[in-house]
Amino acid sequence: MDKKNAYTRGTYREKIEAELEIAKARLQLFREKLKLASAETTLLYRRKIDELEMRVAETKARLREMNDADESSWENFKEGVERAWNSMKESMKEMVDKVTDDE
After folding, report:
1. What pLDDT, on the 0 to 100 scale, is given for residue 100?
2. d(Cα 98, Cα 5) in Å, to the nearest integer?
3. Cβ atoms within 10 A of the Cβ of 58, count?
4. End-to-end CA distance of the chain
5. What is the four-CA torsion angle of 9, 78, 53, 47, rounded to 10 degrees?
């Protein structure tokens, strides 16, 4: 592995980890907001938050796998992490939009 790819991989990992921490904080904020919501709304969004937290965990797992990947596997893992991350971001955006519409 050359230094350029190692730096790129490390930088990429740090970027995704930082974004995951932001996502976790947002999900915690949603959990706090749910304490003030109706039982029906709480049940609906708690399930969505649980699903998103699972996606955060899956993305973290892909990052760990990516660290162990050789150069030929690196791009495949990167693409997998990107797909998982983009899917989670889209789901979170949908939830935020729905919560905003409901308020």
Report:
1. 64
2. 40
3. 16
4. 51
5. 170
33-58 tens-digit pLDDT:
888 888 888 888 888 889 888 888 88
Tell me the Cα Rg of the chain: 16
- Residue pair 56/21 in contact (Cβ under 8 Å)? The answer is no
**Amino acid code (one letter) for 85:** W
Closest to 96 (Cα-Cα) out of 26, 43, 38: 26
CA 17 – CA 23 distance, rounded (Å):
10
Measured CA angle at 51 (ends 33, 25), to 5 deg: 45
**Nearest to residue 77, comparing CAs of 67, 89, 91, 87?**
67
